Amino acid sequence: MRYVIGYGNELRVEDAFGFDVVSKLDSKDLTNIKILSLYQLTPEIVLDLLDADEVIFIDALYSIENKYAIACSLYEHTKDSLSLTHHISYKVIIHMLNNLYDRFPKYEVYSMLTNNFEKAGDTAKYKKSIDQVVNHLTRKLK
Amino acid sequence: MEELNKKRKIIIDPVTRIEGHAKITIDIDEDGVVDDARIHVTQFRGFEKICEGRLYTEMPAMTSRTCGICPVSHAISSTKACDEILAITPPQAGINIRKIVNLAQILQSHTLNFYHLSAPDFVYGFDAKKEDRNIFKMIQTHPDMAKDGIKLRAFGQEIIETLGGKRIHPDWIVPGGMSHCMTKEQKNKILNQIPQAMEIAKKTIEYFTNNLHKFKKEIDSFATFPSLFMSLVNKKGNLEHYDGLLKFIDADGKVLEENINPSDYKKYIGEAVEKDSFLKSPYYKPFGYETGMYRVGALARLNIAKFCGTSLADEFFEKFKNINNGKPILNSFYYHYARLIEMIYCIEKIEEILNDPLTMNPQIRAHAEVNSTKGVGCSEAPRGTLFHDYVVSKDGIIEKMNLIIATGNNNLAMNAGVKQVAQTFVDGNNITDGALNRVEAVIRCFDPCLSCSTHAMGVVSSKIDIRDTNKNIIRSIIRS
Q1: A113 touches chain B (CB under 8 A)
Q2: Which CATH class is domain A2-141?
Q3: 3-class secondary structure, B396
Q4: Chain A residues close to B17, C-beta within 8 Å
Q5: What's the domain range around B6?
Q6: Which of A37, A42, A93 to probe the B interface (max B CBs under 10 A)?
């Protein structure tokens, strides 16, 4: 099974990027795909992913440079991999799947760079970034 | 070192393995002795102002955004305040489903604190290498324990999603009751998972109690001092999380005030503001600021309750009460113990309410218009007593709001605890990582939730700046 997980806070402007991408993907004719919209990645998500062969994470990534660029699997950008409160990073999810459940799904991360979490940014560029990821994933997942 | 002859200040910013962001400052005198220590909550929430001018019916959804881990507590207290504005009592089925969702949230929250935030200290010790004190090491050395934590939290989260609509920010808890009733299939699915959840909870409390002897020094010095305690209790004086009346006791167990209608909370609770923190400092009004320091949360609830009211939880409760011969336990380290007993209680109580025939009644919500311009909702959140106090216009527009967040009630005690631990363990001439970890760990005993919903950016790690009397940084230590 392939999973697409869009996560973020809809109330924090462009932090909704993951939400908006998966809601568009949901309307496409994709088979053998499970789509999840989440506010946060939480530890128990791993139990939903035990049958995953592939997981695609989509979120917004804080950056003051290259806004609206799409970063794909740029792990070095995720500096919070060791943090753990009630929400965790995708790296922790993958680490738990590998080391607790002996599951090794392929995974990719698509992140839109932005710092527009408090007020609206460039709506046209935002929509273009959404379409870019949606079109790419539609081709990839069909 | 030259700086040893100067007064210095250690800053731990942010504090790790807690919910939200805070920093700790430790003032060290010329002799290297801790002079003072304080916790500063550096996030600003402002919900009381944001909500002004909005409809009261929006409050359960809006105020839930205060927090990403205990949104159910805010939804419960908020809807109870709205119930008062409507001047109605929800149907029993609506109340019962609210209670189940609330208990599920307490269970998943306590589970997270134990397994993911605090267990590394219990498993490896407070002096273990900092790179070992995290969930990754737990996964490596104690995989079954890590899996248990995931399973138990998933159990609580699944109940919240099933009965509340969503795992985070559930929106089926509404003024007047609930918006969705429970189906037989949902009930049976939850009931079927209870044996496994109980097995894990029992295993956890046994692990903790079997290892308590290793932490005598921490038990004696982690915010161990006399204070007042406050919580809700039911009519029998037993543990209560959803409803009931407020009760205050002192450090000897003497009842200061009881049978307080939560609507009258302002007569008993004062709210002070410190210039160095966004978290307000509530206190027991008759005793005045600081002298009226009280604690809330699991430890306070068990100190005040006569019994839990469920069979297995009461077995553990009896042992817990024996620790101080029936008198209130003053050691904040035992918050961990109290949370584990509450986990057992929550599972038993969820089963009990699920088996109550009234829970399946399709009448789950009462409807009314604005019949009162005031409403106070109070419940026990995982971290303590939570108040939502609304004043509305005749049209139901919020004119004034006051929130006392559970964690805020513990602010004075957390500060006193940080100072006590710093004075016990921190040597200004030889600052060790284990000592600084203990300063953070005393905060984790209270399991504070500092506006989780703020979603602050950056690495969750600690930077400790040592400053001279002119506030110049003379040494920095990075902890992550």
Answers
A1: no
A2: alpha beta
A3: coil
A4: 84-85
A5: 2-44+425-479
A6: A42
To the nearest whole angstrom, how far is the Cα of A79 from the nearest Cα of chain B? 6
Nearest of B50, B38, B172 to residue B101 by alpha carbon: B172
- Cα end-to-end distance, chain A, whole Å: 13
Q: What is the ipTM of this complex?
A: 0.81
Mean pLDDT of B71-91: 97
Q: Which residues of B touch A9 (CB under 8 A)?
A: 453, 455
Structure tokens at B150: 């995931």
Q: Where are the domains of chain A?
A: 2-141
Q: At what angle do helices B143-164 and B71-86 cross, to 10 degrees?
A: 20
Closest-CA residue of chain B to A39: B168
Q: Taking a C-beta distance cutoff of 8 angstroms, is the pair B385, B230 a contact?
A: yes
B62: nearest CA partner in chain A? A11
Chain B positions touching A99 (Cβ under 8 A) are 139-140, 143
**B 101-140: CB under 8 A from A:** 112, 116-117, 134-136, 139-140
Q: Are the beta carbons of A12 and B480 separated by less than 8 Å?
A: no
- Residue the block writes with tokens 């399991």: B447
Identity of the residue numbered B51: C
Q: Does A104 touch chain B (CB under 8 A)?
A: no
pLDDT in tens, chain A (142 residues): 999 999 998 888 999 999 999 999 998 888 889 999 998 888 899 999 999 999 999 999 888 888 999 988 654 434 444 445 556 788 889 989 999 999 999 999 999 999 988 888 899 999 999 999 999 999 988 8
* Average pLDDT value for chain B: 88
Does this model's pTM top 0.80? yes
Residues 3-22 of chain A whose Cβ lies under 8 A from any Cβ of chain B: 9, 11-12, 15
Q: Determine the residue of chain A that is closest to B447 in CA distance.
A: A85
Measured distance CA(B107)–CA(B157) in Å, rounded: 9
Phi (first) and psi of residue B216, to 5 degrees: -60, -45
CA distance B10 to B161: 43
Instruction: Confirm if B302 and B415 have CB atoms less than 8 A apart.
Output: no
Parallel, antiparallel or unpaired: strands B19-20 and B449-450? parallel
Alpha helices for B112-173 (secondary structure H)? 119-124, 135-141, 143-164
Tell me the pLDDT band of B2, cut-offs 50, 70 and 90: very low
Q: What share of chain A is helix, strand, coil (3-state, %, to 5)?
A: 35, 25, 40
Contacting residues for B299 by C-beta, under 8 A, at least 6 apart: B229, B329, B332, B334, B335, B338
Residue B432 lies in a domain: yes
Cα–Cα distance for residue pair B448/B133, rounded to 1 Å? 19
Neighbouring-strand partners of residue A110: A58, A72
Number of domains in chain B: 1
Distance CA B192, CA B160 (A): 16
